[in-house]
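Predict the 3D structure for this chain.
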Amino acid sequence: DLAGAYCAMGRVDEAATLLESVLNDRPDHPLALARMAWCKMQADDLDAARDLYQRAAGLAPDRLPVWSALAGLCLSAGDIPGAQYALDRGIGRLEAAYGKLPEAAEQFVAQFRGQQLEIWVAADELARAEQWLDERRDDLTETAWTRLVSGYASLLAGRDEHAAAEDTLRAVLDD
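Done. Predicted structure below.
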């Protein structure tokens, strides 16, 4: 718990020192592995972070933040299949537990939707992303829909596809 508090305060070195001690005694402690992975991410040791998150996910597959972080690390490494796999696993675990955590689930649903768009944009599967967005239109609240499309437009703009981003936003605003 103290290591978690240090992580929350951004005191990465102190958290890592405590976590190393825990992992020396209990190398398969899933929460310690996940927190150490976060520390490694902060230190820009992304390969070590990815390995630690993979171990944590294998030991505690219901921890949704682990799948989300793993998907993000895979995506940043250019491993689109790995990112999609991690995201699919996270979504599967979320669907299995949805009835048990309704408030928290909405946060993860939104996060996973955004990550799915990131993966498709990185894979240059824009038609797939746009079709998926169209299919979500009637299922989401206006606020959720607007956030999702705005996020997609931001992803497009981040790839210097400003005209496509503008067209996407215009299509939403015209509805």
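DSSP finds ten helices and no strands in the chain.
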